[in-house]
Write a structure and sequence with these properties.
- The structure is a homodimer.
- The first copy, chain A, is an alpha/beta fold.
- Chain A is 38% helix and 16% strand.
- Chain A contains 24 helices and 18 strands.
- In chain A, helix 22 (532-538) links the parallel strand 17 and strand 18 (545-551).
- The radius of gyration of chain A is 26 Å and the shape is globular.
- At the A-B interface, helix 7, helix 8, helix 9, helix 10 and helix 15 of A face helix 7, helix 8, helix 9, helix 10 and helix 15 of B.
Chain lengths: 583, 583
């Protein structure tokens, strides 16, 4: 009965403060209903319902500027800023993205999906305001989990010097995606226990003013806090204690499981499609490594589940000190991996493709310059991986392939992955990255390849006329193209898995000149600066025709992988036609 | 008389503690003598002479592991670990690099030149030690200036959780390269003033134990501190107050000037070659921008001098709040630039090419995904820029050119630079990076190009047969090649400045097909994944021959730029011969 009259923040201000909890209850109920149908980020959004109502009551968005860190928690904000139909009406469920998006609303200032960015972005807005003579308030809302990221910490440090008006709301729900890691979380716990009054205070250490609110669901107190914050002429941290998943009892019991979730039954939280069955290949390979090699250390930066380590198994390995979650801190994880390998022990760091880019400098300078034999597992790379513009893995080849000393391996199946991991973790000559394919299948054939012969490609089938060099997940398509072409023409084309993305197999490329006139490269990432262009360059002065296919340079979002590939010419039919018309 | 008997750390232990200051004095004298002849990092090394003597007395390197952050301060360490001839004997001055280097000595654990890495690298060594059952001590030495970097802060946070033995020596000389920036430096000042006893303590906020030493030049106290540190079973911060430039009175007076310095007269510090004259083009262009556009904000991450802002001029602009040094914190600077531009103000961030890679994620996700019209000035790019393996700018094109929405402009002269900066800072459509060339000359011709016509290359001279597309600094060479070829053959080749590195001029490339059979691409960065391969790929299925030239994929070090170019085929003679034999 409240929400139906709220079409923007202005309508919230028309309500009495005593009515706001009623509005919050409706927002929470709306959220739960939609999330149960569609899935999404559950815990973080349920935890900020009251905070969001209070923010929009106390501030005047869009004049005042709210910056949501990582924006995992922006659904209540979207509901209250003119987009409620996307949450109340199933026909409109897909009208909004899961992240803040300036294209959707003037109340969304940035499109973000990586953590730890809000403090710096808000600092930029504040400096812009100061330069333009503006007077509006700037507020960043950042979760406790995001505080471990270097960008956030750099931002806190500069905020401590910046002298103007800026509010940093720490939404402390005592949880990252998984549990928090790092010494600062002990300080947050002490601050919570002492009502913000303990002697040691990290935020004051950065030179920031500070205030604490224990009940982050008391709207009246939240509004009073924000009103006091508005009066501060200096940057101030408003540390607010909230409950992740508030309103869903089963979400409180397992906050990691309920960070992000598929559709579920509201009564008991049971997943509508049943519990997903996860592939255990990565976990099993790493558990085997940890078991066989007592010097082995596996690192994650806040995403242990990405490596298959969950529950008691995770706890058991963490206790050995050799399964290490450093929190959301990719730079530290990568440099630590270099240090572990530099010591002579074995290090594996597993990271999602969209986040490996947070450690480019560490990969180049800390790891590869030192040529330490650590291993990076790049997870969910390419077009079949994550599909939001905020979480793309389309440029891992661009980012990694040019770095000296690095060997970037691209397995096409589980057997190859296991053999490559064995190779990478037992050799001592160079750092290795492994591009773990999303379409991860057993080939049924044991892989006995010797990966110490660098840049040696695998010829899957040998034909003549045309050769298809296909990266990772696209090997299967290349085989389909070859089969379809054979069926139509009774001729065989050559199919190659390049295996190494950090170099080309010159011997093979030379040999193709004898009886091939066309090389087609297929990759499931961006074309520009990708693998295929290295082949084109190799044959640049040669009569060999080279056609490179990859994804166009854009922040693609919410796409269907096969459709996006086809739009970029990567389909069995199109490539087959190109081969037919060019040979 | 002490130093002559010290050929390794073992020899230091043979001395009485009372004799160690004598050794330190000799090390300092040796340093001053060599630095006056060769130049190098002056202030930081003179500040750690006593600390280094004490470290090697208290610990047993190489069994115990010393990690020097950024390694700007490793000269005394090198002198004391078997490499003193490189400092005492002019004939051996070039035997060692300016950074720690495992290839030189088992006492050097990592090759590093970027700041803020030591905590994480040391954590990795500590985890490796724990896994391997080792018992040795691990010590990171990190300067106060490096603490503002996100990687160091991530490391401090994880160190607060790591439960094992680890010593973090904060070498606090109250100075970064330039002055320090950020709230944590207020805390360091309070800690110094209170003898480490003030209530607020950033390090304790990260969960770390802490001890302070006021006189970082008292060797006996330093040894006692390190001995206490050795007894700690948990990570402990040993905060040591030192004097940057100690021993050179004139270096104390201007610590920024004496951070790094060319050869000088010992008596008065006067530079042997006279004071260098710096090009003021960048400074003047930015000062003009700040003057004309009151919303303009210029950002630097700890290197204001790179933008030509020094002395009173810097202070004056800093006071306006629109010349902003965020300290060594590239991630924050880049995200702030996105925030400033997102607000609608004008933002320019200037950064050395080797350090732009510290903000890859922020460029892609925080800036380009949001398509905010901030400007990045990439300084000292390519082979003519910095020439140490720790400070290479050979991969800026690889790192930036594939990022969607970004426009990467490559001026060949000052006029083009100024016009590009005007364009970048007045348009509101996209983020722009400008690759400021090292060989920065006035062409004498006003540039009136309209850079809003994206990907439009400039044809410097039109010929036929062959076309040279040359990036940035190599345009001059391309013109020389054309002139030399003309002289020999009386034929004209086409010379093109691509201008845009984030796309190709398809219209021009198409038009070349009519009367050209060869395109040669020249770039002053790495070949692999660079600009030229985009041209090769464009012509992949066409009879046009394409020969791409760039630098080989290696961490090149201490090279002569022209020689390295020639080794990679980039010389007037070689390219001319290639054109002659291919057309």
């Amino acid at each position: 009965m409240y929400l139906e009259n709220v079409n923007g923040p202005g309508d919230i201000k028309k309500l009495q403060i005593s009515e706001l909890q009623g509005l919050a209850d409706e927002v929470r109920e709306t959220l739960i209903r939609k999330l149960s149908a569609t899935g999404g980020h559950v815990g973080s959004n349920l935890g900020v319902v009251e905070m969001t109502v209070a923010l929009h009551y106390a501030f005047e968005s869009p004049k005042d500027k709210l910056v949501w860190d990582v924006s995992h928690q922006c659904y209540p904000h979207k509901i209250l800023t003119g987009r409620k139909e996307a949450y109340t009406d199933p026909a409109h469920y897909k009208d909004v993205t899961g992240f803040t998006n300036p294209a959707e609303s003037e109340h969304d200032l940035f499109c973000v999906g990586h953590t730890s960015t809000s403090v710096s972005l808000a600092l930029g807005l504040a400096k812009g305001r100061d330069a333009c003579g503006g007077t509006e308030h700037i507020v960043a809302v950042i979760g406790d989990g995001a505080l471990s990221g270097g960008e956030a910490l750099e931002g806190l440090n500069y905020a401590g010097e910046y002298g103007g008006r800026l509010m940093l709301v720490i939404n402390d729900n005592e949880q990252s995606v998984a549990e928090n890691h790092g010494g600062l979380y002990k300080n947050l716990a002490d601050l919570r226990e002492s009502g913000g009054n303990c002697t040691t205070n990290l935020f004051r250490g950065f030179g920031l003013d500070y205030e604490y609110l224990e009940d982050g669901h008391d709207i009246e107190k939240l509004i009073a806090l924000f009103e006091r914050g508005k009066k501060s002429e200096r940057p101030i941290v408003l540390h607010v204690h909230t409950v992740k998943g508030k309103g869903l009892p089963y979400a409180l019991d397992n906050r990691e499981d309920w960070h992000s979730r598929g559709p579920f039954n509201i009564e008991d939280g049971y997943p509508k499609g049943g519990y997903p069955v996860y592939d255990t290949t990565i976990h099993d390979s790493l558990a085997e490594l940890l078991t066989k090699d007592e010097s082995a250390i596996v690192l994650t930066a806040g995403t242990p589940r990405a490596l298959g380590f969950v529950g008691e198994d995770r706890e058991r390995w963490a206790k050995t000190g050799r399964f290490v979650d450093v929190g959301i801190a990719e730079e530290n994880a990568l440099a630590m991996a270099s240090g572990v390998a530099g010591y002579g022990a074995c290090a594996v760091f597993g990271v999602y493709a969209p986040f490996v880019q947070r450690a480019y400098d560490q990969i180049s300078h800390d790891l590869c310059l030192n040529c330490n034999p650590a291993t990076i597992l790049v997870l969910l790379p390419g077009v079949y991986g994550m599909k939001s513009s905020t979480h793309l893995g389309l440029c891992d080849i661009q980012m990694l392939s040019h770095i000296p000393n690095l060997v970037y391996l691209s397995p096409s199946c589980k057997e190859e992955y296991r053999q490559m991991l064995r190779y990478a973790t037992t050799q001592k000559k160079h750092p290795t990255a492994i591009r773990v394919p999303v379409r991860f299948y057993e080939s049924g054939v044991e892989d006995t390849a010797d990966y110490s012969i660098l840049n040696k490609a695998k010829v899957i089938s040998r034909g003549s006329g045309a050769c298809i060099i296909a990266v990772g997940s696209l090997i299967k398509m290349a085989e389909e193209i070859a089969a379809s072409y054979k069926k139509e023409t009774d001729k065989d084309v050559t199919v190659v898995n390049p295996v190494f993305l950090t170099g080309v197999d010159e011997e093979l490329l030379e040999s193709l000149k004898a009886d091939h006139s066309l090389v087609v490269t297929l990759e499931d990432g961006e074309l520009d600066g990708g693998y295929g262009q290295r082949i084109a360059s190799y044959y640049g002065a040669d009569p060999m025709k080279v056609r490179c296919f990859g994804i166009s340079k854009r922040f693609h979002s919410d796409f269907n992988a096969d459709e996006l590939l086809a739009e970029n010419g990567i389909s069995v039919e199109n490539i087959k036609e190109i081969i037919k018309s060019n040979t």
